[in-house]
Design brief:
Length: 474
């Protein structure tokens, strides 16, 4: 039995989130004349100097993993890692894992920016290239999903997931991995009703249409995730599940995001596929970003009395609520990223209907006899091991000393990690399959027909919070 005050501190009651909210600035500050690190909204006050010894003793006894959750990265890895180091040093704790909920912007060099759907005036190298090149190493294991501002050419190389840089793992367009005994799933991209049922027809180099559609969530990836049966501890999505605001204080949300009110009342704020996955998977935690604000909700599922704790976070900027530390009960470390047996079985079974053209996938013709497939995967993993293939570069990193771009390469490389993954599952490599004339995207809506969500210069940066003209659900 845990003492009641300690249970309150650790968030074992009510929302169940952890004891520290540090997203207000790059360096969290205690309130004046107090030894309290302020936790706003639904979170608790934490008397660190008094509670830290008891907290550390509790964590040793019950093996609680400390996970940092971050909203939209936008390439600012240096700033996020500096914030984590500050927390660790000042609070005498060790963060075990960083999760990023999209807009990671894994830009390796100038050429990658051609695949980044960002207005030219906002295109910057930021800091990911340092970690890709080896100049810097991520101080904490990092797992991320994609959003709607990504170097999509690079993420397509790692469609099934893989190391984007040493110690920085991309979960794939959809994926599940294990970190210790914690099972983490995720869905990259944002929902767009027009493109949802299409196949993954986009190939680099992208045009004005495909640079936008490449990151739109596809039915095929959701279909794979809907076949998960084993419990999920954490799920990541970039946009919010449709209707999630019904389970939190949406009235408070619209006080500072006034333009959300109509969409909330009309039931259009969020992603339909994400809502379907939330209902099916019922994860213990669901983390999102995209709308550049913090929001919490508690979803009580009808079946089995399970509860999902939802948290959305802002982007990495001073004064924004972009980072949260969460404690989750786990086995003792050390921890490492490992493949998930059930997910590998689903991937192997459904790869035969992987749609790579404009045509919708024919999912009905695949019978999922998962028991035999899982046994096959288990045998392969016993022979090979569950660790993903090691990181390897497939493009030259940015060199600040070069006066001109050093990215004169062309073509679409096969990432050795993806090749190794497919060899593990005895699957063919199809990511570079060319489209025939019947499958060209010429018939797709033109650029002006698209309505995208939350550009880099989002509505929070506009005077008086005027809403922009872009719809979050299309």
């Amino acid at each position: 039995m845990v003492a009641a005050p300690l249970k309150l501190l650790l968030g074992l009651e009510n929302e169940g989130f952890s004891f520290v909210d540090v997203g207000h600035s790059y360096q969290p500050k205690a309130r004046k004349n107090s030894k309290t690190l302020y936790c706003d909204s639904l979170y608790r006050f934490c008397f660190w100097d008094f509670w830290t010894p008891l907290l550390n003793q509790y964590c040793v006894q019950f093996k609680r993993m400390k996970i940092a959750v971050e909203g939209c990265m936008h390439g600012d890895l240096d700033k996020v890692y500096d914030t984590i180091k500050y927390i660790e040093n000042t609070r005498n704790i060790k963060i075990d894992l960083l999760l990023c909920c999209g807009d990671f912007q894994a830009v390796r060099n100038e050429k990658d920016m051609d695949s980044l759907n960002v207005p030219p005036k906002y295109r910057e190298m930021k800091s990911f290239w340092k970690y890709y090149s080896g100049q810097e190493v991520a101080p904490v294991p990092t797992i991320f999903i994609g959003g709607n501002h990504e170097a999509s050419n690079y993420l397509w190389e790692l469609y099934y997931g893989g190391w984007a840089a040493p110690n920085i793992y991309f979960l794939g367009f959809a994926g599940v991995v294990k970190f210790g005994n914690i099972r983490i799933g995720g869905l990259s991209g944002i929902y767009n009703a027009r493109n949802y049922c299409l196949g993954h027809h986009e190939r680099p180099p992208y045009n004005d249409n495909t640079i936008r559609s490449v990151y739109h969530v596809r039915e095929y990836d959701v279909h794979k995730l809907m076949h998960l049966e084993d419990p999920i501890d954490i799920f990541l999505s970039h946009d919010w599940p449709l209707g999630i605001t019904d389970f939190g204080n949406w009235q408070q949300l619209v006080r500072y995001k006034k333009h959300f009110k109509d969409e909330i009342q009309q039931g259009t704020l969020g992603s339909k596929p994400a809502a379907q996955l939330l209902e099916k998977l019922k994860p213990s935690y669901w983390f999102s970003a995209h709308l550049h604000c913090k929001f919490t909700a508690l979803v009580e599922h009808e079946e089995g009395g399970r509860v999902t704790k939802f948290l959305a976070l802002d982007k990495c900027l001073p004064g924004r609520k972009f980072l949260q530390i969460v404690d989750i009960e786990s086995d003792p470390g050390p921890y490492e990223v490992q493949y998930d047996e059930e997910w590998l079985a689903i991937t192997r079974k459904l790869n035969c209907v992987f749609p790579l053209t404009l045509r919708r996938g024919d999912f009905g013709r695949t019978q999922l006899d998962m028991q035999d497939c899982r046994q096959w995967v288990k045998s392969r993993m016993e022979d090979r091991g569950a660790k993903p293939c090691e990181f390897s570069q497939t493009a030259p990193p940015h060199k600040p000393s070069d006066s001109v771009s050093n990215t004169t390469f062309s073509g679409f490389p096969r990432n050795p990690q993806t090749v190794s993954f497919l060899e593990l599952l005895d699957l063919p490599y199809v990511l570079d399959n060319a489209l025939d004339s019947r499958d060209t995207p010429a018939s797709l809506p033109q650029k002006d027909d698209y309505s995208e969500d939350i550009p880099i210069e989002d509505e929070d940066d506009l005077e008086d919070g005027e809403p922009n003209n872009e719809n979050r659900s299309s």
